[in-house]
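Section 3.1: Structural characterization of target chains.
Under the original work plan, the team committed to producing a structural model for every single-chain target entering the pipeline before any wet-lab resources were allocated. The record below documents one such target. The sequence was received from the expression subgroup and is listed exactly as submitted; it comprises 115 residues.
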Amino acid sequence: MFGVARLHLNMFFGTEDGHTASLFPGSPLLKGTRALAAAVMLDAKRHNRITVMLPVINDAKNVIFLVSGKNKAAIVKTVIEERDNLLPASLVMPRKGNLLFLLDAEAASQLSGKD
């Protein structure tokens, strides 16, 4: 997509607020961009960082979310079943790749059809 090699694997850990990489809900970085990465300036409690952008994530061959804990069950349901577009994790949809959620029983506890 960008004239650079595709990432083979992007692995993210599930968060309680639905952010992924360092793309947070409501961030202006979620709007369309051609940038590969961007600086993320945060408050004094969280350190500033650099994040890859959604087009890079969605161009990956494989994207994995690893999520554990009952405290993340509600956000897992929202991301997987409701695909809430306000949550960056819901915007991860590889165009020509695979999306996999690895969940423990507690993180999956609110999903319908969890048998």
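Helices lie at 54-58, 73-82.
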